């Protein structure tokens, strides 16, 4: 795992108040896999008026934008 990936995992842990183990982190290859792991860790199966999956995506995107030169449109 590169330093940028480690920084991203640390920011995600901080942003969502979760812990991602080294073994779990090493299996993450795509942003979709990271999204799925965060949703799983947060147990987002509760009824809500807003789409919690979207909320996770937008928070992840905000962190990715903060760490890179990617624009909002680049991260989908």
Largest sheet: none
Tally of helical runs: 4
| Unreliable stretches | none
Order of helices and strands: HHHH
| Shape category | globular
Q: Strand portion, in percent? A: under 5%
The chain-level mean pLDDT equals: 84
The CA-CA distance between the termini, in Å, is: 23 Å
Please report the total strand number as a whole number.
0
Radius of gyration: 12 Å
Helix content, binned percent: 55-70%
| Structural classification | mainly alpha
Secondary structure elements and pairings:
Blueprint: H1 3-16, H2 22-27, H3 31-41, H4 52-67
Helix pairs in contact: 1-4
Question: What's the short version?
Answer:
The protein has 76 residues and is mainly alpha-helical.
What features would you describe in this structure?
By secondary structure, this protein is mostly helical. The protein is built from 4 helices and no strands. α1 packs across α4. The longest helix has 16 residues.
């Amino acid at each position: 795992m590169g330093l940028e990936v480690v920084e991203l995992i640390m920011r995600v842990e901080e942003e969502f108040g979760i812990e991602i183990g080294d073994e779990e982190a090493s299996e993450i290859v795509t942003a979709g896999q990271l999204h799925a792991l965060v949703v799983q860790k947060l147990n987002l199966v509760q009824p809500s008026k807003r789409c919690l999956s979207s909320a996770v995506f937008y928070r992840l995107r905000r962190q990715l934008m903060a760490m890179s030169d990617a624009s909002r449109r680049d991260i989908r």
